[in-house]
Batch of 3 targets.
Target 1
Amino acid sequence: MKYLEEKIFKIVMIGAAAIILGVLIYILGTIFYKGFPSLTWEMITSIPGGGFYLGSEGGVLNAITGSVFIITGALIISLLISVPLVMYINFYLPHKSILSGIIRFSLDILFGVPSIVYGAFGFALMVYMGIRASLLGGIITVGMLIMPIMMRSLDEIARLQPRDLPDALLSLGSTKYEMTKVLLRQLMPGLMTAILLAVGRGIGDAATVLFTAGYTDNIPTSLNQPAATLPLSIFFQLGSPVEEVQNRAYASAIILTVIILILSFSARYFSSKFQKNKS
Amino acid sequence: MLGIAIFTMLFLLVIGFSLFFKALPIMKEKNLWVLLTSANWKPFKGDFGFLPYIISTLYVSLIAIIIALPFSILTSIFLNSYASRSIRRVFEPVVDLLSGIPPIIYGLWGTLAIVPLISNKIAPHFVDFSTGYSVLAGGIVLAIMIIPLLISIMLEVFRSIPKEMTDASLSMGATKWQTVKKVILRKSFPGIIAATVLALSRAFGETMAVLMVCGNIAQIPHSFFDACYPLPALIANNYGEMLSMPSYESALMFAAFLLFIIVVLFNGLSRFTLNQIEKKYQFS
């Protein structure tokens, strides 16, 4: 009897796992199947021409560059804040200090704040500071979104660092700052993973940039200009009643999905490399 | 560096307070109770009843959890106690990818795959007509989006169970499933609850994917096949237009504030529980 139960549940479990795998394949399959016919070189290399939203020529280069600009800016901001913070709570504060506990806890919560709330907050902040929907607004808001992601994944890896390396460095007479520099080099693969995860999350998020970055058919040339983003570009093209435009939305979705696939696999590559270093 | 540390801690408060002050005008103008329980939403006449949005959010998120939970528990048990190393290695990127796919792609897939499925295949068995843009569509898409989060947390929780415990059970002649049922699941129950609450709060805040598949009609949905209009979608859809009306803007900020408070509360509770679990097993 107990062996029967064992067998039944094993089958159910394998079924559940297989369904999850199947859904992933189904999602990717649907996107590629629908979008592939409309995916042309022009899509990637040109900005929307006149009548693009009625079905005539053009591409989504505006959205691709806009997304890249925004995520680059956001990445710089969040790196400048999160690297020192993670170093501080891991190597400056004493082991298991209360302060680092509180900081980690607030990071966990910040990580869970929905992107639409960041979007609304970012918008309120922009109104307060007198910034219009622009590249700068998008950078600030996406920066806020990806900061906790980066901090948490970097912290997770920094926490695994053996404690004897910092101790050895300190006993050799290095200052804490010098010690941090050495440790940062040690954490490089982990930092790469954190960056890739954060970029993946930031580049695909639409709710944060919806009110803060605006939308344009051109490539932004300054921080004050509005910037298009890939997810919003997909969203707006989907809203069109013209079939060709909708098909292009599917093609744009392939572009975004491929970017995410590359980011995700490279993140995995770097984290496996890190694990190899560890053992 | 201490400055950055303090800034990070205060950041949460800054967000909370600024949303609160933005929402203050509407809370002064209307009774808080009326805002939360009235179903009357006519912004241009000054009626702001959030009930349809709150109910929609709850409805969609609950369906998502109900669908996602069994799949996630079963899969995490499978990965934890049954799967071979190579299967686990294949499955890790699957979970990674599912959590990495942007909401807009989920939404797109939902409109292409789930909405027609509901409208053509499922709904005709139950109701006369459904466009497919419904509570159920939102729930299904959301379920897939929270599964990776559930699986990764549950795997961590299972991993925190000391190996001696499962070994003891197995050596007494219990089968693997009996061990799972009587030792692992029982031991990790608080962790599973915490993971569920965390996933629920993620579901509350999910915007774009749900917005694209749930129909966006401000009503209290009566069945799975009715359209609904969750809070995040309300904010996302109306944000640009409301600037001319201060009370409308304040009302939307109130929605954001509401979302923020609930999510912070849920997150705080479950993270606290998960941290306790981790701590307990680190020292033993």
Target 2
Amino acid sequence: MLWLSIVVDNACTKIWDAWGSGVQVTSLRVSPAVYDAVAAARPGEVARGYPLMLLGLPLIADPGVATYEPVVV
Amino acid sequence: MLTEEENEVLCRVGPGTPMGKVLRRYWTPAFQAADLPEPDCPPIRVTVLGENFVAFRDSTGQLGFLDELCCHRGASLVLGRVEEGGIRCLYHGWKYAVDGTILETPNLATSTFRERVRHGAYPVREAGGLGWVYLGPPGTEPPFPAFSWTDAAADELVVSEMIMDCNWMQVQEGSIDSSHVAILHLDTLATMGAGPRNVGSFEFAGEPWDLDMPVPARGQGGGRGGGDGRPGGWPSDDNAPRIEVENTPFGFHYAAIRDVTGEPGKRFVRVTAFAMPYTAFIGGVASGAVIVVPRDDYTCSSIGVFKVPKGAGGIAASRRAGGVAPEVWGPEPENRRVRLPRQDRAAMAAGKSFAGFRGGNRIQDAAVQMSEGTLYDRAKEHLVPADLAIIRMRRLFADSIRLVEAGDAPLGLGEGCDFARIGAASQIIDAGESWQDLVPANQGIREPVRRA
């Protein structure tokens, strides 16, 4: 089972760490499995052509990112 | 957000479910001790974690917490007679002691059965005006969470329980969500001088609207004033606080850190403590806690426990509704289920109320949390970084589920922790100071914060 709770917690912690260092963040890179899970959970947004977003950031699928280690950019 | 599958796993609590197995590894506050006021008083039905039990007080005053249905033919022991050291089923007279010993089986003369079989009975303790039970595997009981108020006398405790028709996670997430407080509860905080007086372009128009709610004079209710003549005691205009969360042996601390208006170098900090899995100590609320316990997947109890000075009424005060209309909620056992109150649109339009719900913060909370539906589908939500406390709580539960499924203990059992030191804080500090120093039970697992 994919635990988005863990993905989101790790991503949120990284966002606050970045802000704490005065760094602005613009997107969130996640594994394709996470991206697909978010897309599957939000068919309405996909159908309307909205960008998928998590924690206020646009999601980017990146095969180089581990499932539970999202990267804020 | 959660996937549909993960949402189900985190929210459902019945026996055998992943979350149900986790929650059964903690002491669970299951009922109000005052509902069993004296030896041999009528028993009560308790629904908790999706199961039904009977609680009773035997002739010596000892509490018993047993499976509800008689193990002979399944009649409810809630109908039973509490007499001479046990509870007797009405159907065929089988009688049980508080530890589940079968004392009598009138329609079975031989003793072999009752000597070899016990009725389902669970450890139960009375503390802080509540009956706490342990429903986990025998021999796995964690340390009892002896919070600062659990040894208070009955005349020093106010306990109020609201039964809400929604999944417990909706209410639990609300109890640790500080970012809604100055918005949903604007009327309360603005009137008390304990918070801001606007939400975006909405300006609170003024005098106490929720007239049934006890309201102190202006400026007497909140934190330290900013000294600039603003009407309230809320010392900050910073609506986007910095959020920090730190795990502890009992759960986590969560700090909202705001700049102080007119005082560069000062920070206004509110710290909430979350003790797994049910209890929140909320910044700005002294000497008490909010406990959220699932009754089943679609119903929960939100229990406020507050320590008050001797002579303030204690448990007796618990029996007063405190300004909530009786058709909405009441403290009596048969009236604890919250019914959504009528929303006063005229007061909202006139700027006299932001939310339009009379009865104080907990009724406003109940209104929005129950409005999410009986079991909210979190696939639809859009969390933001300010939701870090909610995010961290889900993480602790997810990690605990994985640990228990692997045969280990869940997180936050508080091994070696002094529960009596757990509490919240709301204070102005110097920018170089650490908020961790405000909460005496801080036992974070992060690297120590550099001190100025």
Target 3
Amino acid sequence: MRLDLRTPLGALFGMVGALLAAYGAATLGQPGTAPTGIPIDLVWGLVLLGFGLAMLALARRARRDSAA
Amino acid sequence: MTTLRWIDYAVMLAYFAFVIGIGAALRRYVRTSEDFFLSGRSIPAWVTGLAFISANLGAQEVIGMGASGAKYGIATSHFYWVGAIPAMVFVGLFMMPFYYGSRARSVPEYLKLRFDEKTRGLNAISFATMTVFSSGISLYAMGKLLNLLLGWSFDASILVAAGIVLAYIFLGGLTSAIYNEVLQFFLIVFGFAPLVFLGLRDIGGWAGLTQRLAGVAAVNGYAPGAYTRSWAFMGHASQNPVGVEWFGLVMGLGFVLSFGYWCTDFLVVQRAMAANSMTAARRTPLIAALPKMLFPFLVIIPGMLAMVVTSTSAVRPAIASTHATGPAPGALVAPAAPAAGSDAPAPGAGGGIVPAKLDPRTGGPLRDARGRVVLDYDLATPMMLVHFFPAGLLGLGLTALLASFMSGMAGNVTAFNTVWTYDLYQSYVRPGAPDAHYLAMGRLATVFGVAISVAAAYVAASFNNIMDFLQLVFAFVNAPLFATFALGMFWRRATGHGAFAGLGAGTLAAAAHHGLSLPAGAAVGVKGGYLGVVTTYPSELAQTFWTAILAWVTCFVVTIVVSLATRPRPADELRGLVYGLTPKPEDAARRWYERPAPLAMIVLTLTVLLNLVFF
């Protein structure tokens, strides 16, 4: 494959996840940030970050395997 | 009107930067017209599979399925579990060998190889027209929604979205569109999943949703489970909100409309044709079917929730809107009966958070022919987003919404530029030119495809009924097409004259049936009855399903009759194009679960299970 799609996928979701998690942590406890009692920006930001890093790791492994 | 914060804009800008960046990164790989239009047939199955469903994840899917969820409840899942999934299995197992194996570059080109030039020309012209108008309608819906929700300029919204789609397709062609569709797929999943979680948590899970929708069902004269059980009330059209019985559903939606779309629409088939092998092409719709069968949870449930959510725990308890908030007495759908100890409103206070449509003449709530208030179901999902998502997540949710509009538009534009260049320009305007000429024409077609889409968006904005009208035309053209393909691929005796006559007769039959029928409560006009009202259907969907059935049967019968009266092509000319004259494809996959047949069995088993769980 000419461009491993997992690289931009991982980079975008990693970046957005980190941004969201940082914003969620910075605004923790402020009114209007926790619908139904969950600090959703922080939680979901970490989920996105995890997904992004997993994609980047898979892309890196594929690069290593094809180089070997 | 909702105000966004810097974090919301940051998420959107990151997305815009990545989609254009992907187009720019792929530009250097586009050297030939096949690279531009068919991705050089080099994409792995998991990518084409996700693009296969993402190209269909436009406004109609995300907004439309949420709207149908609010209006019809879980019965909307029939579009997936009876409609899309069986059709995707069929196209993967039985039709893809002909599309991919014939080396046709487009669906109209397959029609030329199998039938004749006039059948290809008819399909190419109708398809190219429909794609740009469909793309324009998507743009219009997006501009209107962003204007309503966020107060953004309609002009700026559609021009920016169209400009971004143009940039990444112009640069990287179909590969860029496909890669971005996968990106958009994940954005839509991650953007909408928390909405379902928060909404369900707010009202006490599925049990809470069932209990509250039982109240809505009671007010509308249905049994308590009519909005939360998909099959139990399909025995008679009057027992369910869809207004259709099981036969009309299975034949109209499950067979004609779904197979007509998923098996013959070049917009989705093009993704599979970009796969790197025959096995990958056949696996493309099967891989797509796995996430597709779970999409009802992502796009339908938010609509159902919007009808009953009233919680003050959401981040924006008061919905600010230019719409009337909630239906007036006598509304089509009244609120749920309040559960004990819940914060649900008293009856008569409103229909969840779905606002009523406004009558442009009076400024008050719009009423149907029976005097009942019409809800603006298209706003069900967007209202859920602004109701539950705080700053940050709202940016992600709105980006997901934008991604859905853009992926739908990109799908249409890439299908348009291919059909225009190969099936119209190369065939009728300038045959025999060097490949570089067609590559340049493909890029030019991308520009004017986007330009026509923008113009179509303004046409849609100028005429109240243009969207209904165009969707009607699409239905007339698409419904009979599956009969043409089914006979063409599986009956060697079918002839070009038969196919052409069948398509014309099927379209005329659809128009005649529509003109002689009317959904209950609708006024004569674009909704039907313009030739005289001979029959009335309980809902628009019921009318659509029966129109499709009639169109399909007419096309099927006329194609057979005319084919039998005309001279067939010799069998030698039909090898690779017709079942029975084509060797069965060999599976290149090594592992059993990568082979199309076992994968299809898994998909069908899971689909049956989902139907049983929500029976």
